[in-house]
Every structure is written in C-alpha cells, then in structure tokens.
TrEMBL record:
Monomer. It is found in: Cytoplasm. Belongs to the class-I aminoacyl-tRNA synthetase family. MetG type 2B subfamily. NCBIfam families: metG, PRK12267.1. This is Methionine--tRNA ligase.
Amino acid sequence: MSKNFYITTAIAYANGAPHLGHAYEAILTDVMARFKRLDGYNTFFMTGMDEHGEKVATTAEKNGMSPRAFTDTIAEKFTALDDRMNVSYDRFIRTTEEAHYKASQTLWEEIAKNGDIYVDAYAGWYSVRDESYFGEDELTTDGAGKKFAPSGAEVVWKEEPSYFFRLSAYTQKLLDLYESNPDFIEPASRRNEILAFVKQEGGLKDLSISRTTFDWGVPVPNDPKHVMYVWLDALTNYITGIGYPDTSSENYKNFWPADVHVIGKDITRFHAIYWPAFLMAAKLPLPKKIFAHGFINVDGQKMSKSLGNVVSPGDLLDMYGVDQTRYFLMREIPHGQDGNFSHEQAVLRINSDLANSLGNLAQRTLSQIAKNCGGAVPAPGPLTDEDRELLESAQVKMIESVRGEFEKFHIHRAIEDIMRVAYDANAYIDKQAPWALKKTDVPRMETVLYVLAEVIRCLAIIMQPITPEAAAKMLDQLSIPANARGFDTLNAAHAIKAGTTLPAPTGVFPRMATETETAKQANA
C-alpha cells in the first residue's frame, strides 16, 4: 500500500512581488516535500496565488491595469522565483481559475445546507491590508484618532449587507479539536495563542463572508451582487488543487486530508480557526496539521523599507547561489521561530558547513581515489572498529535521527545531525591520513578511501532535499544511478560497489570570500 503525503504553502497574496518570507516558506515546504518523496511517499506539493479581494483590485487600479492583468504579472514573478529556487511544486494554483470558482461555490453551498450561512448587515472596523474586520478591543489609536489593527494597518469603519458564517456555533467544537489533537497547531506558542483567542469571553463571533462594495472575487451562489470574502475563497484552494468538488477523484482520495499546511505565523488564526470550522460545516475531513513558521529579521531587526534593510530573494540567490541560500535558511531558522539573516553569518555558515566540511571532504576523498586508485572505487579490506562505527553512523543512524527530526519539522536539527556525520568523516580522514598510507600500507589506504566514498554517498543522498543541485553533482561524481538515490538505499546492502569507475572530481561547494578578505583583495 502506497504512503501518501500532501503538503501546501499558504497561497501568496497577489498585491506585490515576492519577498524573503515567501522564499523561506517555499523552500521550507519544498525541503519537506522532497524528503517525503525520497522516503517513499507518494507526495503532492501545492503552492500558488490568492488573487481576489479589495486590496488587489485597488492596487491594480493604481497601476492602470485590470485586476486579472495585474495578477498575471505577479503570478509570473512568483513562479519564476519558485523555479529559480528549485521549488518542486506539483501544482501552482491560482484562485482565478474556473476550477477554483466551482470549488468555492460548492463549498459555500455545502455550508449553507448545514444552516451555517445567513444574510445580515455588517458594521465594523475593517483593514484593507489584512482583508479582515477587527474588534474594538483589538485596535490601537494614535494621537490623531486613527485606529490600527494588530498588524499596524489602518482600519476604517465599514457598513454593508453581508452573508455571515455561524462561527460562534463552532467555539466548543474547535476547542475539542485542539484538545483531542494537541499537534494540530504547531509550534506550541501558536497553539497557545489560538486557544486564548477561541476561549475569549463570549466565544467566537460570527464571520462576515461576503462583500458588495467591490466585484473582484468569486460570486456568491444565487446572489451575484455579493462576492465571497477573501478567506473563504482563498482557503478553499487547498481542496480545489486536488480535485474538489469531485471527491471521487484519484487525487482527492489520495491526498485529502492534507498532512500539513505550512503558513506564516501572521495568518494562523485564519487557518487554525476559520478553515477547520468551514470544513466541519461542510462535513469534510480536517487537515492533520497547521505549521506556522516565524519571520526573518535582518541583522537582528525586522525588515522595513524605512530602515533600508529589505533583502530580496533574488539578491540572496545572486550573492550565495541557490543551494547555499536554501541551506542557510534551513540551517539558521529554528522550528517555528523567527530567524535572523546577516551576511557575515551566511558566509560563515556556507564556508564552515558546505565548503570546508562537506565539499572539502568529497574533494579530498575523490581526488585521492582518482590519483591513487586509477579513478575507480577501491575494494575494502578488513574493517576496523573505527571504520564500522563511521559506516553505521552514515548508513543506519543518520537517516533514523534525521527522519525523526523532519517529522517534528525540526529541520535545523536534522541538518545538525547530517553535519555531525560530515565532521566525523573529516576527523576520520585526518586521523587515517590515506595520503600517508599510500607509502606504508596500500590495502589500508584503499579501505579508508572506500569507507569515505560510502559515507559521502550517504551524505549526498540525505542532502538532496536541502541542496538538490549540489547533492546530485556529488552523486554523479560517485556514479550513483538516478534510480539508486532514494532513502531506501541508505544501508549496507546498497553500498557503493568496488570497481565502479568515477569521473574526474570537481568542486561542488566553492568557498566564499569574507568581507575582510574582499577588502584586502581590493586594497592589494
């Protein structure tokens, strides 16, 4: 029986170009999707664009474009960035697709059948930027009397007819969900925030789910004067993309409920409260997990145009390279927490881990094999305890520990486990000194180089989700066939074969010059 795994990013809002947070979320989700594929799962990875709403319509108008033409240009920027970052999505969904209109309207009708939609008038404080209403107790007021949402966006008073979703009827059902499934929201800090919000005095308030003041959205069934409120429309993408409303389709049967929605911490409420409530009302299964990641600061400060510290994803890719950027972001940002980017730390990490440890290990070993073993994997002789210990770490223990960390979304810790094996292998080559053994004990030299080649094979296989291009080059240099690169080959039974002819080795992770070194070169 095949194992299925469905993972999504949040769909990016189509009112501007992608920023570093979008890049981080896409890479984080891609690393998990790649890991699951290599671990034998039938995996479906979806990302995409949220294209409706007043903010998009307003921004398009300011740019002298129709909403559709404007969102087309934004979608091109996101897909171009995803492709450049090697994001291996299976589906890039856009909420302007005809299939999504059908899915959203069907979900609306299913909720209405349950009696959880009614029409009324709405008056409240509304943030265009957040596409959300806020209670008076959630707002702050400045000296000029202007009111602001928790996000810092200014709110305005709005009154209009609206359809409502009976969110109030789901207060206890949601609390029961969180209690029966403590891992539904991760990390725990986000779970605690959601619990506090749902447990607020009086419980949850009914939710406005339609608008009449603009028409850029999915029309409400049987009442085209209204368009769907952006969150009911947007959240439905997760089931549109796998075939809903055709619940008998192969993709829907295989992949719903989703295993995990990966989102930013600022939209946890919509995913952990609204989305499960909508699904309960429509009598559909709930996703298994909502994982809310943190934000990326720059040099210890929140990115801000006024501070002049905004870093674009393209700048990072240009400066460090694709795999290096992927590695740094995954290595430096802890589970669900805010992370920090600094150029100094990026160069230090790339040089220390990738160039000096992993890249240098491969280059030294493969150069020795090319020079001293006729360019073919040598045959090992009797193994010492040190040989066996290193091989067991690479072939058995590494995948066990890394798999456990990935299950908890502790990708930074998984990378620590991988690099520990690389550090041990570097210590091993320094101690065994195969370049010296060539003069005193050739059979032992061949055994040491064989052990190192096998460890590098294991390291390259397990690094594929994080640094796919570089890992593939390392495996090419070991002449590992494309069909022998899954995690099921991380064992002695699939060890590299003695006598395998290897191509001439080339460096995979070049070392980056530090600012001090660059300055010295400039002044030389």
